[in-house]
Structure of Acyl-coenzyme A thioesterase THEM4:
Amino acid sequence: MAGSLGRLFRGFQSFTSLPATRAQLSHPPAFFSSRTMVTLPSFLSSKPRDFSLPNSSWGPEMLRLYELYNSQCEVETEGGEKQEGSWQRLPSYNRSLKFATGGVYLSKIIQSKARLFTRNIREQGAAFEYVLFNNKEEQRCVGIFQAGHLLEGPPGHVHGGAIATMIDTVTGTHATILSGPVMTANLNINYRSPIPLGSTVLIESSLDTKEGRKTFISCKVTSTDSSKLHTESTALFLSINVSHLLRGG
Ligand SMILES: CCCCCCCC(=O)SCCNC(=O)CCNC(=O)[C@H](O)C(C)(C)COP(=O)(O)OP(=O)(O)OC[C@H]1O[C@@H](n2cnc3c(N)ncnc32)[C@H](O)[C@@H]1OP(=O)(O)O
């Protein structure tokens, strides 16, 4: 039981896109011989796709901000050595536990067709394009989000539920980094100005305080130059024992 829960916990980390699971998740496809190495189409590859890497749908602003933060993930010392920088890019997959092993306990909560819903639309750029970066020292997490045409709410603008989804994604991932497995208990959003469809925005999450099982987080969504405030929100996450999920909540 303890072993299964341990495996489940590691899988749970991948649910929230944590980098700790990267090594576990990488299974290089065994389709090449020692002499030839063939690049396979992605649907034949057993390697999970990391959705937080740039793709052809990313506009110039999305790419610019990605480069801005990504360039701070690794720095070069005076001696020319590479070192971890202040930011860390968080990889993101569309399945929670596909690559975790486990028996009855996993199958109780994970259906084989289950997919992370922000990552389940095939057409690139159509819905949620985003990448998260974490700054451990500053206890801050940043999401760069490009909203696609399938997320329409008011004509030409992003649906409030889609915005809430992204706030929950960024703050929830941040809370998991800070506190381990958590669930959203409360999410409070003030919508200040609409987000045009197709635009790129910044989602900035910062730790307010931790009290026992409670992690309180604040989050702002702004235009990429920070001149326009789109939403202000606060969130409460409660640390859970993974058995909470096994019991069906
Ligand atoms: C990759 C993407 C990652 C994104 C992460 C996404 C995370 C999610 O969206 S999770 C899905 C949405 N959330 C849910 O479904 C959660 C449903 N709710 C639950 O399961 C439970 O109510 C849960 C776990 C939050 C709390 O239950 P439980 O552990 O029994 O706590 P409980 O004993 O009721 O309360 C503990 C403390 O928290 C407080 N508390 C609980 N809920 C709330 C709340 N909504 N508001 C304020 N305080 C609360 C209680 O008052 C209590 O405080 P104190 O200890 O001071 O008396």
Remarks:
- Confidence is low (pLDDT under 50) at residues 1-16, 19-44.
- The radius of gyration is 19 Å.
